[in-house]
Amino acid sequence: MCSSDLRIGVKFVDEAAIRVEAGKGGGGCLSFRREKFIEKGGPDGGDGGDGGSVYLEAVEALNTLVDYRYQPRYRAQNGAPGQGSNCTGRSGDPLVLPVPVGTSVIDEDTEEFIGDLIEPGQRLLVAAGGHHGLGNARFKSSTNRAPRKTTPGKPGVQRRLRLELKVLADVGLLGLPNAGKSTLIRAVSAARPKVADYPFTTLKPQLGVVRIEAHRSFVMADLPGLIEGAAEGVGLGFQFLKHLTRTRILLQVVDPLPLDGADPVAVIAAVSEELRQFSPVLAERERWLVLNKADLIEPAQQNALKQRIHDELHWTGPIEVVSALSGDGTQSLSRALMQRLEDLDEAVAADPERRAAEARERALVEEQGRARIRAWRAERAAARATEREQNPGDDETEVYYVP
């Protein structure tokens, strides 16, 4: 087999649980100076070294947390003990774990939000190394000239962490399965997500750079299809919704002629409700509607559908009509999005308070999303506990040997 024929697939993993342990501080040394012709040399026990700390560092070359699924435990180096002649022990080397840009770090036990890594090269301290112990030289005084007291090094911090990767994109595509999201991102960028005539072909986020012209581009994210109950964890649920928290504009792709005969207006309302249940603030974020498959409906039908959306949903945002398959309307949509993003950048540059307000809004959206996920996990754990109590024998594994 030629090397050019070899294809290496990397699994996209956007959540992983790991255990980190910082190094223990080295103990202090109990020692006295012993040299020829030097009488009563006194204490000379040195301090120990500090334990190594554990850091996470954002690396641009990574785009998945899959490595942490296979190796979940990490431990930094301990500090060396002190030595005689007032020699301080060597401090433990810090442990730096690379993670993709866009990773959030949460304490698994307390659900404390530790921090975000959103810039390449950014480091986050997740477990501090233990403080060094003191040697007996530290305790000498005018009244205690031969101290035998030392202190041990302090243990390092141990934590169970949950790493969550959220894609960083300007525009996020959302909609029901088979609405044409993947076809749309293929039409406007070089991304090539899987496209097929069955639902849930997109199982992981796909990023595409939409280039309008030289030095004018933005990032679009194609996310898994949304179904009713996603805010309750149904289907891909949270694996889909949490990736929307860092997008600036939501682009809802609507199929005007769904195969199941659903009403497009009702579909738009259902998606709005799912967003509201997951995060009320996210539901208020700027959202555009894209009526796809324009090649299948007449202009009069398009206008009638847009009028229904305005009347029944009181919609005030933009409504674009495109055909992702043929490309009609996709260029004008891309240019309109680019112009809107540039207008937002100019407004933020002119008003520093607006930048701070946007940062607070993003933090609130992520906190609401984390709270919803915590509640869902608690409900699921309670349901499983109740089921085990009602059916205690179901946990027993039965093995059948087939000849």
Structure at a glance:
The chain is of the alpha/beta class and 403 residues long.
Q: What sequence of helices (H) and strands (E) makes up the elements? A: EEHEEEEEEEHEEHEHHEHEHH
Terminus-to-terminus distance: 39 Å
Mean pLDDT figure = 83
Range of strand content: 15-25%
- Count of structural domains: 2
Compute the number of helices: 8
- Please summarize the sheet with the most strands: 6 strands, mixed
Gross geometry: elongated
Structural summary, described in words:
The chain has helices spanning 67-70, 181-188, 238-241, 264-278, 280-283, 299-313, 330-350, 352-390; strands spanning 15-21, 54-59, 73-75, 95-100, 103-107, 113-117, 123-127, 158-165, 171-174, 206-213, 216-222, 249-254, 287-291, 319-321. By secondary structure, it is α/β, with parallel strands linked by helices. It has a six-stranded mixed β-sheet with strand order 10-11-9-12-13-14, sandwiched between helices. It has a five-stranded mixed β-sheet with strand order 3-1-8-5-6, with no helix packed on it. A three-stranded mixed β-sheet has the order 4-2-7, with no helix packed on it. The longest helix has 39 residues, at 352-390. The protein starts with 14 loop residues before the first strand and ends in a 13-residue tail after the last helix.
